[in-house]
Every structure is written in C-alpha cells, then in structure tokens.
Design a protein that fits this description.
This protein is an alpha+beta fold. A seven-stranded antiparallel β-sheet has the order 4-3-5-2-11-10-12. Strands 6-7-8-9-13-14 form a six-stranded antiparallel β-sheet. A five-stranded parallel β-sheet has the order 19-18-22-23-25, with helices on both faces.
Length: about 500
C-alpha cells in the first residue's frame, strides 16, 4: 500500500467546452490539470459534423493517466475533431473498478440524437432505480451509476431534451456534477446540495465547464462563476452569440447547501476557487486554527520544526507555523520530507514482506533537518493509519527528539456516500479505536497526536458558512437518507 492508497480518494474530474475549434486539445489540457481527481482512466468525446452537416460524435478513452491514454497527440487532431467536447478522469466509485466498460464519458444515440455524459459523484438511490429500469426492459452495459442517468433520460416521454434531463435529475439522489454533450448543446448540472464543486468559464467566445478552476488557468480561460447547487446550465449557439448562459433550476425549492469539506482539506488543488473561496486561503486557515488549539512547544525551549507531508499538507503546515510564531512560540517551517514525483502508474510494487517500501519509494527524509529536533508533522487526515505509521518509522531514522502529529481534520469514523472513497468503517483506524485518540497515538508511535475537532474545522472554513458543509464522515450525520443495503453494497463492488 502506498501513501495515496491510505488517503481519501475523490472520485472524478470533469471538463467540457462548447464553441472552440480544436476543442479536444483544450479538454486534454483541462483533464491534465484535473488529474488529481482521478488517475484510473480518462476519456474524451467530441462533436463534429459529417458531409451532410449532420452531427457526429467521436470518442477515445482508456485506462491510465491522461498522458498515457492520449500519448499519441495526433489523436486530438485526427480523431477527436470538432468544436465541442467533454472529458472525464475516473476513479471508480460504484461499478467494477477495472472494467473498461465503466470508463467515461458514456455515449448513446437515442430518439433525440447523440448524447454523451461525464459524472463526478455518487448516486445513493442508483440500485433502486436500476432495478426499476431493468424490470421495465432496460438493458445495462456497465455497472456504473452514471448509466442510470442515461436510461432515465432516454426513456423520458417528454419532447424537450432539457425537460427530459431535468426530469431524470429529479429522480436521482446523492452527489453529482455532470457534463452532457448533445448534438447542439453543452449542459452542466450540480446536485441541489452542492456536494462537489463545478465552475463555468469563458475562453475567447467559447464556454468551458470544469470541476475546478485550476483547469481554466492552464488555458488562460476566464472564470465566470460557479454552477449553483441545484442549477442546470445550457450552452448552445445562441449563448455563444449573446454571451448569456441559459440557467434552469432542477428542483423548485432551494435546499440547504452541504459542501464536502474535504475539498478544502485535501481534494482540490490549492490554486482552485471553490465554494466561493480560494482553497489556499482555507488550508492556511485550517493550519492556523490547528496551531491555536493544538500547539507544540519544545521541552527545552528550542525551536519547533514544522514539516508537512508533501504535497497536500504544504499550505496547512505554512498556516500552522505562522500561527505558532504569532503566539510567541519559537518555530520554523522546514522541509523534512522530500517527495518523488516520478513514480509511474505501473511501478512494480513490492511484496508483502516489505510493506514500508511503498512509503520509501514516495518519500525521503532530510536527516540534517530532523536530527535532534522536536518535529511537528502536519497532515490532512488519517484513514487506515498503516502508512502514517510507516511514515513515522521513516522519520524516526533521522533521530529527532520527538515527533508530534497534527491533523487538519477530525477523526474519520464513518464511510462517505457522496463521492469520496473511504474503506469500510471496520478499516478506519479511528473507528477501530472507538475514537480514542490516545490509542491511535500509541498505534502510530508518535509522542503526541491531536486532530481538529468538528467545531474547530468548521470555524476554519466559516467564511463559506459553518452550516454549509457535510460532516458525515466525522459525525455520522448524513444530510440525505442512506439505504442500509446501499452501505453494504458500496464496499462489495
């Protein structure tokens, strides 16, 4: 198990563009910027026109990173032609992880024409809907919950395509952000609670949609705004001419927002703008609140050395160290761990006889920095705890005076059903230890361990609204009804 496999995993990244010649190249760059949101598979669908000026869809997708699936860049200009496209980076949620059939975008042709879809999230009522559709004669080609949305759209008896899609979305529950490409429009939608981020921007006269704004920056696109929770937007030729995005409400009554707080803690890139704020700023605030409530002082009055677990905790560690300084605690932000960025997806993993090799491949210690020092190791979360323990063992080789572990989230006690991959509760170290932090500390073999409490975490992100966040994985209070059978099946897939 390597370090990333013992972290929360976000499910997918989506990108769409309408009205830009050579659209596939822009999707390629956008997916590259969103690679952190899914590294299992990638795909692009474009819309072009044949000799009779009829719309035609082109698709290329496969397993691996964006650079691996589209290693031959001539695919973008020779196969994926057209001025509109959508793309998807995948990490499996529901659906068999290694099945090529589950790689998105999905593409169909039905009575209203061509339709392709990319989905980020997880539907909590997919099983019930799937059974209903199968009983009505639907034939499924994949095990993905995304295909349920396709069937609901295709089987609608309404005559307007937007109405068909809204009707389908009103039947699904859980977390979703969607990009949909049709013969004459690009559609984006976000679930009414707004679990996952989704933004819209502009590239010259074209419009772009992406999971995170960092995907706009790579191609100098202008960020316009976030897609609102419960909003469906439409981009078509009329929108290109007028510049006015068409907006529809999925549900009539607005629902309370429930953003995934882990987007700020870990998932999103620090250079992205989500939920109304910059991720970098929120991570610094998490570090600041962590230091105020859980400081570390060297027993002999010497400097405390604050180090991060790169790269996700870099900004949080910066906030932690600066707040210690403001509090009058002698501290220094140091680089104590060096991370390798050159480990390929197909790197041969060692056998069970040397489980720590996964951490050693990823990280190396700077012994001259750590030796004889009181170390504060700042990390964003602990899931199983196995690799955190291996990382502590690695740091001990530098012979520090003490290792204090500070976590910028509360203990993870419960599974997530809204687009974040945790193991079952029984595998979570906090659940195993019944939330006893002292027992977790002993297991990890650190000198002290402290987490943010739920209230402290919400204080840190309060600029986006304390009540606007889902805390289910910490508290067990789920904002939607969760079927107990769904809980079981999530971890049997």
């Amino acid at each position: 198990m390597n370090y990333e496999e013992d972290k929360p995993i976000s499910y997918c990244g989506i990108f769409g563009i309408y009205g830009y010649e050579g659209a596939s190249a822009q999707v390629y760059y956008g997916l590259h910027a969103l690679q952190h949101r899914g590294q299992e598979a990638s795909g692009i669908v474009t819309r072009s026109f044949n000799g009779d000026n009829k719309p035609h869809f082109n698709i290329v997708k496969g397993e691996g990173l964006v650079s691996e699936v589209f290693e031959d860049l001539s695919i973008l200009s020779d196969v994926l032609i057209g001025n509109s496209a959508i793309g998807h980076n995948r990490y499996s949620t529901t659906g068999t992880a290694k099945s090529r059939k589950n790689i998105q975008p999905f593409m169909v042709n039905y009575r209203m024409g061509n339709l392709a879809i990319g989905h980020n999230g997880n539907l909590t009522n997919a099983k019930e809907l799937r059974e209903e559709l199968v009983n009505e004669g639907a034939i499924f080609q994949t095990t993905s919950d995304t295909e349920v949305i396709l069937h609901l759209i295709a089987r609608s008896k309404l005559d307007n395509q937007i109405d068909q899609i809204i009707e389908a979305l009103r039947r699904i529950e859980g977390a979703y952000c969607l990009v949909i490409l049709t013969d004459d429009k690009l559609i984006a939608a976000r679930d009414p609670l707004g679990f996952r981020p989704l933004s819209v921007g502009k590239l010259n006269d074209a419009f772009v949609v992406a999971s995170e704004t960092c995907a706009f920056d790579i191609q100098h696109a202008e960020f316009l705004r976030e897609v609102e929770p419960g909003e469906l937007i439409v981009i078509d030729d009329e929108v290109i001419r007028t510049g006015n995005i068409k907006s529809f409400k999925i549900n009539g009554n607005p629902e309370p927002k429930k953003f995934c707080v882990f987007e700020y803690i870990y998932f999103s890139r620090p250079d992205s703008f989500i939920f109304g704020h910059n991720v970098d700023k929120m991570r610094r605030r998490l570090g600041k609140v962590l230091a105020k409530n859980h400081p570390v002082v060297d027993a002999d009055g010497e400097s405390v050395f604050v180090i991060s677990v790169p790269d996700s905790s870099n900004t949080t560690a910066l906030g932690y160290a600066r707040e210690l300084e403001k509090m009058g605690i002698d501290s220094r932000l140091e680089i104590g761990l060096i991370r390798s960025h050159y480990i390929g997806r197909t790197f041969i993993k060692p056998g069970q006889s040397n489980r720590e090799m996964g951490v050693r491949i990823k990280f190396n210690i700077v012994k001259g920095v750590l030796e004889g020092r009181t170390i504060v190791l700042v990390d964003d979360s602990i899931v199983r705890g196995t690799t955190s323990k291996q990382l502590v063992h690695l740091l001990r080789e530098a012979k520090p005076k003490a290792i204090h572990l500070r976590i910028s989230s509360p203990p993870i006690m419960h599974p997530c059903f809204y687009g974040m991959d945790f193991p079952s509760s029984e595998e979570l170290i906090a659940y195993q230890k019944k939330g006893n932090i002292e027992e977790i500390k002993k297991y990890l073999e650190v000198d002290s361990l402290e987490y943010l409490t739920i209230d402290e975490m919400l204080e840190a992100v309060s600029e986006a609204g304390k009540d606007n966040f889902c805390t289910a994985c910490f508290s067990g209070n789920y904002p939607t009804k969760i079927n107990t059978n769904f809980k079981k099946e999530m971890y049997e897939v």
